Amino acid sequence: TTLLRIMALLENPDAGEIFYKGVKVRNSDRLRKKITMVFQKPVFFNTTVFENVAYGLGLRGHSENIVRKKVRKTLSLVNLEGFENRRVKKLSGGEQQRVMLARALALDPEVLLLDEPTANLDPANTKIIREVIKDLRGKTTVIVASHHFTQAKLLSDRVACLYEGRLLEIGKTNRVFTRPKDKMVRKFIRGELF
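RE: above sequence
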């Protein structure tokens, strides 16, 4: 979570530098508009689904017509058509998480950061969110923080393994899961680390 918050430019690192597309980040205001984060626990306004998804678009000065189109499109992507007038607070946890994903996708981010996007969700909502993430391949860079092996295998092209704040290994998903180079990663994959 801390690393994602740093990547989302919401927190400053204690040490080191941040680079985006090979360029050191100096002014994060312009770059922040290209990066969107969806937190593990849904963070929403106590309003309708439409107003939650439309909020960021309104801040960016989009016309009402564009806002309506983008909200409708992104709600369709997350299988929430017809939910526009429902209160987010009254939705299930999985539906709330899908609204937060729609709100992020409506902004057309270059980088989408997802912190445990399916944690504590039922299988139906988990499947929908996984399908949305898979459909984003080639359209946007998606970085998912997860402790769930199956999810990492299904959704990623590359995996980075962190342990106690240290990067242990990074590489193509299949290689890391079948032939990990790091001793701690091997133990983790075998279920020997508790």
